[in-house]
Amino acid sequence: MVILKKIRAATLIETLTASVLIIIVFMIASLSFNNIFSNHLSGDRSAIENRIKELEYQVLHQNIKLPYTEDFDTWEIEITTKNNTHILKYSQKENTYEKQLITP
Question: Could you tell me the fold of the domain covering 46-101?
Fold first, then answer.
């Protein structure tokens, strides 16, 4: 008969401790990736910037009657004229941006 060698096995407590440590590491990594991804999505302003470029083009080619206001997604857009200069303002919550349009 074959003589079986005794292999020292890990105890239940060691196995549970290692499992808990692995779960904690994966949880921290998951929360970090979630935070990075949500910050990227909230900082993405490409849609509003494209709309601003369209409005700027339309103002420069006199296709819009001024003063002009619009709600775009969660943004409020306003175009006014002051001292023969067109001023474009767009805001969202506490963020407000202003741009002067140069007319030929």
Answer: Nuclear Transport Factor 2; Chain: A, (3.10.450)
**Which residue type occupies 1?**
M
Domain segments of the chain: what residues?
11-44, 46-101
Token pair in block for residue 73: 């997604």
Please name the residue that has the structure tokens 């949880």. Answer: 27
Query: Is there a cis peptide before residue 104, judged by omega within 30 degrees of 0?
Result: no
Summarize pLDDT for 39-94 with one digit per residue, the tens. 877 777 788 889 989 998 998 888 888 889 998 888 899 988 888 888 888 888 77
Amino acid letter, 72:
F
Which tokens belong to 23? 């779960």
Give pLDDT, residue 64. 87
